[in-house]
Amino acid sequence: MLGEQLSAEQISKVTNIISEKELNIDAIKRLTGRTSLVQKEEYPRASIELSIRGHIEDKADITKKFMQVSRDLDVDIAFQEDNIYRRNRRLVCFDMDSTLIQAEVIDKLAELAGVGDEVKAITEAAMQGEIDFNESFISRMKLLKGLSEDVLHDVAVNLPLTKGVRRLMSTLKSYGFKTAILYGGFTYFGHYLQKELDMDYVYANQLEIVDGVLTGGYLGEIVDGNKKAEYLKEIAEKEGLNISQTIAVGDGANDLPMLNLAGLGIAFHAKPTVKDNAQSSISSIGLDGVLYLLGYHDKHIDLLE
């Protein structure tokens, strides 16, 4: 369970579901420090892990009940099998826009090209799954035709990082994880962020630029949802990992193929359609919430800082 803070009501609702399903709670472990009662924290976060045991006849039903509590009481609940793979994840793949950063890069470029509203509408429809990603990508690219290459650097250096992302990345690196950006945006920005966060892999779309100007075209295959899943599998094989040892994190409909393929798929501050179809979700705290889903305690994280 994850949240800015956890209340007795939230915990009670979850344990009631566990009791209704005739499951036993073997242990309850606090993964975060105690929330101060007198001082307002700059970045409040709370997490507890419940180890439960018993026979589950319908995992989908208990997951549905947990997700209802999540929506009603604004708490994140991740329900995972505690098998050998959960303790041995080794690869984490991230979407970039609205996941690693709090922006949609193509929307920023569109504003500079004077077509912000048009591109933003197409982006939103694609993220909601209302239109095909490839179709939306080609339409948005055409609207960027004529934009100067010079603006790319200014956009890159001003990308707003998501809360908790540096804490997450430094911890993952310290514990030997491989990390990747699987991005429906552009390699220029993916490679910039790769260096900024010291990540291992980047797969994204390449802008076509002629004489210092965007042509409105692209080079190579479009990195859509299915391609992201292919790259996740490819990296896992390259690193000698079982697919169950992988984690995928994203927010849009085009992230669902990789979220569903990975051993642990996490919808991060995601659109409702994505959240309803992902294995787990984080909507209440920053990206370092991923660490708690892996079972890390603050003492394992803060030790490295």
Can you describe this structure?
39% of the residues are buried. This protein has two domains: 1-79, 2-Layer Sandwich (Alpha-Beta Plaits); 87-305, HAD superfamily/HAD-like (Rossmann fold). The protein has helices at residues 8-20, 59-73, 105-113, 116-127, 133-143, 150-157, 165-174, 187-197, 225-238, 256-261, 272-277, 289-293, 298-302; strands at residues 2-3, 24-30, 46-53, 91-94, 178-186, 201-210, 213-219, 246-250, 264-268, 280-282. The strands form two sheets. The chain has a seven-stranded mixed sheet with strand order 7-6-5-4-8-9-10, with helices on both faces. A three-stranded antiparallel sheet has the order 1-3-2, with helices on one face. The two termini are 24 Å apart. 41% of the residues lie in helices and 20% in strands. α10 (256-261) links the parallel β8 (246-250) and β9 (264-268). The protein is elongated.
Number of helices: 13
Instruction: Give the strand order, joined by hyphens, for the main sheet.
Output: 7-6-5-4-8-9-10
Mean pLDDT: 92
Q: Uncertain regions: pLDDT < 50 for 5+ in a row? A: none
Q: What is the CATH class designation of the largest domain?
A: Alpha Beta
Structural class: alpha/beta
| Ends apart, CA distance between termini | 24 Å
- The strand count comes to 10
Summarize the SSE layout with pairings.
Blueprint: E1 2-3, H1 8-20, E2 24-30, E3 46-53, H2 59-73, E4 91-94, H3 105-113, H4 116-127, H5 133-143, H6 150-157, H7 165-174, E5 178-186, H8 187-197, E6 201-210, E7 213-219, H9 225-238, E8 246-250, H10 256-261, E9 264-268, H11 272-277, E10 280-282, H12 289-293, H13 298-302
Parallel strand pairs: 4-5, 4-8, 5-6, 8-9, 9-10
Antiparallel strand pairs: 1-3, 2-3, 6-7
Helix pairs in contact: 1-2, 3-4, 4-5
